[in-house]
Every structure is written in structure tokens, then in C-alpha cells.
Amino acid sequence: VQLVESGGGLVQPGGSLRLSCAASGFTVSRYGMSWHRQVPGKERELVASIDGAFPITNYPDSVKGRFTISRDNTKNTVYLQMNRLNPEDTAVYYCSAQLGQRDYWGQGTQVTVSS
Predict the structure, then answer these.
(1) Cα(35)–Cα(43) distance, rounded to whole angstroms?
(2) Which of 19, 29, 40, 45 gets the most CB atoms within 10 Å of its CB?
(3) CA 28 – CA 87 distance, rounded (Å)
(4) How does 57-80 read in b/e, with b if 16+ C-beta sit within 10 Å?
């Protein structure tokens, strides 16, 4: 199992980014997938999840209406579309796959929101 994130970078407040999580070793359409973020000194925070069996998504209030998780089964990839970004969204963003009793993680991609 491997998860590789990409798409992070520097963006101005109010801007948008789309993160990608390319998966290998399993099929993303069959398992729950999620995005998390972490800043130094704080716990990792869930920002979006999508169910494996059904396209049911879930977001915390801090990103609801701004972030959208989706998946492309033909590319075996999960995305996180982030709009109306603000400096509080600055963090390392991680993709995660929930495969049975174990969670797998990518290496993370840095998102910096700054003018």
C-alpha cells in the first residue's frame, strides 16, 4: 500500500488549491479515505473523509463549505479541493486510507497560505 500526496504549495489568502493522493496496492473506491492536516505542536486534525461503500462525505465545521473531497476511481486517486483558503489553513496535509484494522498514511504535502 502506498499513498503519494501532491499539489501543495504557497497560495494567497482567498485562493484555491487542489491536493491529490495517488494510491497503489488497493482500490480507493472500496475503502474509506480521508485527508488530515497538522501544524507543529498540535494534533493531527481530520479535514475531510469519504466513505468506502458510498460517496458519503464528512467535514468539520472549520472547513465545511470550503473543502471538498472526491475520488477518481479510474485514476485510483483521491482529491481535496480547497477554496477560500486562509492563513489558519496552513499545515502539512496528509492522505489516509482505512483498510480494515489499519490506517495507512502518505508522506504529506505542505500548504502555506500567506500574502
Answers:
(1) 14
(2) 19
(3) 30
(4) eebeeebeebbbbebeeeebbbbb
pLDDT confidence band for 52 (50 / 70 / 90): confident
- Rounded Cα–Cα distance for residues 32 and 48 (Å): 11
**Residue 101, Cα to own-chain centre: how many angstroms?**
20
User: 14-31 burial string, b = 16+ CB within 10 Å, else e?
Assistant: eeebebbbbbeeeebbeb
Can you say whether the dihedral through the CA atoms of 108, 61, 73, 1 is positive or negative?
Answer: positive
> Which residue reads 472526491 in cell numbers?
70
Under the banding of pLDDT at 50, 70 and 90, the label for residue 43 is very high
Q: Are strands 91-99 and 109-113 parallel, antiparallel or unpaired?
A: antiparallel
Segments in the chain forming alpha helices (H) = none
Per-residue pLDDT, 54: 83
β 17-24/32-38 pair status: unpaired
Which pLDDT does position 114 carry in this prediction? Answer: 97
